[in-house]
């Protein structure tokens, strides 16, 4: 999601917080909530490259994310999409005034993010989410990604902060933040700390502005937040995916499939859509290893990441590419590695030493003999060429033929004029 470069005035919201219902709700936007809602799209039948790369069925044998609530702080999530129906809670809208739910979407951004996390399988469709057993808590903090001129719409930091606190209070164990910005807003920073105190793991996109030079990225740069960059199908970082110490992991972020509001799918680019792959993997881990804290879950995700082009702990790729299967299955130890025993060389065998020395002497003698033989052969070849020629000349020295005399040349005078001299010089010579 392209994000804030300026701060909007906070929009008032009701103080009362609605309860979260587990059942599916009508996702039709409230009246006048969407000025120009995006239409549904056709379904994509092929299995996307990102799902092939992560080999999700292998991880699902051990965890599907069941029992974990993942908050999506975004543009809302369409609860009526066929692959999300029954997986999306009512949530809360912090963008519009009033006591509104968050399980509708006007632009499909949040729906795509939520589907990458928890979309269930559907017949004839290759796309599915990383943690289909998890539930999505939609927290709506914006309604559009771009304005009518195609420019990013700033998001109100106060709304983001309230959304994060709401998600933590509603028991979200993972909070996905597919948004980034330059500003370190105290309200957002404090909300992040509050969620962490509630043992929520926050996963944030690092942003897509690297083309404009090095830049800060919040909330990815906050301590304890997992910052996620993007890779393409070749495993390379797209030019826009930001670079910095705040990049902890990378995940697919170019031409990735996500659900659109109402129905269907489309292709997406950007770190906004790389972050939910990590959020989904975090849900798998928190379901399989419920005793782990949010911090330990983050450490596990980084420790089990697959190698990336930048090497370990690079500013471009972080710890590597998120690997859901390894994150769920590998046994990790907090103990230091055991010390390697000192290498003790065995005492040499006297007989082996004697034999080796004999072979060394023999080899040296053979090399010396071969060299002498080569010199003798060269000398014999020289003599075979020189003796017959010497006999023919009766051992008199030969004379080299002198080169033919060159024809005499007419040397030009010291000064030559290729053109007639000027009149002054003519008078001087006359």
UniProtKB/TrEMBL annotation:
InterPro entries: Peptidase_S8/S53_dom, Peptidase_S8/S53_dom_sf, Peptidase_S8_Asp-AS, Peptidase_S8_His-AS, Peptidase_S8_Ser-AS, Peptidase_S8_subtilisin-like, Peptidase_S8_subtilisin-rel, T7SS_pept_S8A_mycosin
Region of interest called Disordered, as start-end residue ranges on this chain: 402-430
Signal peptide as annotated in the record: 1-27
Peptidase S8/S53 domain: residues covered: 65-320
Cellular location(s): Cell membrane
Membrane-spanning segments: 368-387
Alphabetized UniProt keyword annotations: Cell membrane, Hydrolase, Membrane, Protease, Serine protease, Signal, Transmembrane, Transmembrane helix
Active-site residues, as the UniProt record annotates them: 74 (charge relay system), 109 (charge relay system), 272 (charge relay system)
Membrane topology: Single-pass membrane protein
Family to which the UniProt record says this protein belongs: Belongs to the peptidase S8 family.
Protein's recorded name: Peptidase S8/S53 domain-containing protein
Organism (species): Plantactinospora mayteni
């Amino acid at each position: 999601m392209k994000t804030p470069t300026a701060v909007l005035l906070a929009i008032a919201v009701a103080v009362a917080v609605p309860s979260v219902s587990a059942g599916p709700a009508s996702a039709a936007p409230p009246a006048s909530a969407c000025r120009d809602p995006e239409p549904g799209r056709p379904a994509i039948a092929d299995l996307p490259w990102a799902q092939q790369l992560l080999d999700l069925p292998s991880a699902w044998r051990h965890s599907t994310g069941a029992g974990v609530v993942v908050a999506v702080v975004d543009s809302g999530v369409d609860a009526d999409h066929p692959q999300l129906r029954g997986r999306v809670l009512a949530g809360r809208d912090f963008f519009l005034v009033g006591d509104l739910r968050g399980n509708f979407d006007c632009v499909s951004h949040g729906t795509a993010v939520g589907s990458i996390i928890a979309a269930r399988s559907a017949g004839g469709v290759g796309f599915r989410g990383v943690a289909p057993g998890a539930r999505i808590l939609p927290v709506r903090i914006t309604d559009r990604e771009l304005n009518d001129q195609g420019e990013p719409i700033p998001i109100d930091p106060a709304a983001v902060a309230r959304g994060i606190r709401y998600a933590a209070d509603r028991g979200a164990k993972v909070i996905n933040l597919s948004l980034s910005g330059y500003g370190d807003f105290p309200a957002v920073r404090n909300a992040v700390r509050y969620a962490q105190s509630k043992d929520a793991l926050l996963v944030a996109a690092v942003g897509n502005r690297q083309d404009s030079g090095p830049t800060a990225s919040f909330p990815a740069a906050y301590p304890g937040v997992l910052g996620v960059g993007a890779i393409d199908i070749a495993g390379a970082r797209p030019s826009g995916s930001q670079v910095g110490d705040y990049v902890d992991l990378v995940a697919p972020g170019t031409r990735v499939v996500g659900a659109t509001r109402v129905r269907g799918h489309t292709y997406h680019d950007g770190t906004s859509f790389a972050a939910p792959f990590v959020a989904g993997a975090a849900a798998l881990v928190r379901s399989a290893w419920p005793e782990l804290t949010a911090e330990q879950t983050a450490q596990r995700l980084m420790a089990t990441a697959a190698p990336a082009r930048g090497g370990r702990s690079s500013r471009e790729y972080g710890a590597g590419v998120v690997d859901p299967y390894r994150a769920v299955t590998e046994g990790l130890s907090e103990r230091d590695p055991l010390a390697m025993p000192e290498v003790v060389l065995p005492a040499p065998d006297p007989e082996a030493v004697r034999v080796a020395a004999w072979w060394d002497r023999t080899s040296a003698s053979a090399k010396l003999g071969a060299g002498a033989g080569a010199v003798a052969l060269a000398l014999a070849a020289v003599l075979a060429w020189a003796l017959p020629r010497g006999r023919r000349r009766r051992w008199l020295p030969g004379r080299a033929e002198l080169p033919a005399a060159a024809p005499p040349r007419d040397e030009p005078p010291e000064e030559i004029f290729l053109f007639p001299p000027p009149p002054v010089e003519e008078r001087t010579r006359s």
